[in-house]
Amino acid sequence: MQIYKVGGAVRDRLLGKPVTDIDWVVVGATTEEMLAKGFRPVGADFPVFLHPKSGEEYALARTERKSGRGYGGFTFHASPEVTLEEDLIRRDLTINAMAEDDQQNLTDPYHGQRDLEARLLRHVSPAFAEDPLRVLRVARFAARYAGLGFTVAPETLELMRQLGESGELEALTAERSWKEISRALMEDQPQVFIEVLRECGALKVLMPEVDALFGVPQPEAHHPEIDTGVHTLSVLEQAAKHKQPLTVRWACLLHDLGKGLTPEEEWPRHIAHEHKGLKLIKAVNERFKAPKDCQELALLVGEYHTHGHRALELKPSTLLELLQRFDVYRRPQRFEEFIAACEMDARGRKGLELRSYPQADYLRGAANAARSVAVQPLLEKGFKGPELGEAIKRERLKALKAYKEKA
Known about the structure:
This protein has 407 residues and is of the alpha+beta class. It has 4 domains: 1-117, Beta Polymerase, domain 2 (2-Layer Sandwich); 119-206, Hydrophobic Seed Protein (Orthogonal Bundle), CATH 1.10.110.30; 240-358, no CATH class; 372-406. It has 20 helices and 11 strands. The strands form 3 sheets. It has a 7-stranded mixed sheet with strand order 3-4-5-2-1-8-9. Strands 6-7 form a two-stranded antiparallel sheet. Helix 12 (246-254) crosses helix 15, helix 14 runs antiparallel to helix 15 and helix 15 (292-309) crosses helix 17 (332-347). The chain starts with a strand and ends with a helix.
């Protein structure tokens, strides 16, 4: 029995990055031997075990063969005869197909170290094209390591393009896709994830609504970058720079989908794009089964982001409707995330990345003014039921009028 550290732990150590998760592969062992040493089995499809003390995952060396469509369409074979090289060749990228023993002796049969130095994301073998999930994974790695100068090797991009055209991407489950998308959006440069998917043709398969934004012009006075797709990438880039949470990044990606529906004769204006985009945002939300908080914020930002930009001009009654819609009294965090998405949208414009956004503090102040209305005095006056609701609304409107006059 020989045990090797494999994959990301080896890659990140060689890159000088912190190692978080460690994967181990065991060569020359049987399931019975692992159990005898106290390992606990967890793998349903192939032999994976938890270490009796550390709890880390140890997998028996295995080979795989394509047997059906999609991510799950593989038959695995694990036995003591499977070599380390045979196990490594089934991995996605050369930089993930290295192993080291307990003395840090490197096994690198597919030149992963060379590709690390060349800053290349390159597939290990033609079997790469058998797994559609790898398109998303490579795009995610591109987003993670873009800051270090990594790019996707042309021949790997070509295989990704073939996968996009094969119909295999449609076989991915919503859960697997969302796991990769959500992780990619939380990388340092999530816009690179979208760029790579678009470059290999996968974006128009997975998110045709986002792909449709590229080439759609906007008024240059507000959008010096002009192209709506380019603007969307810039907004996503700003969200990452400002360390925004996943909910905000997802909303940033989808906020302008309605502009993809504008007839060409109306370009570069996009009248009512906020409302037109809601059905598209809903479709993308449902396709990937995004978490409820991500779905809700994306729809609210899509519908109201222009209200955010015009906050200083809004009538107190419109401002009150906005605050009610967000339920700022019970859901203050969601309104904060809305403000953040609006600010990222304002900054995601060429040459305007450092602009101030006074609307943010103004909206926070308005929310505080509305929240400051006390209910108890109204109860003491005898208001109850629907009348109480109307009385609270009147007092909040009064508070917002006073706030607007002072601001």
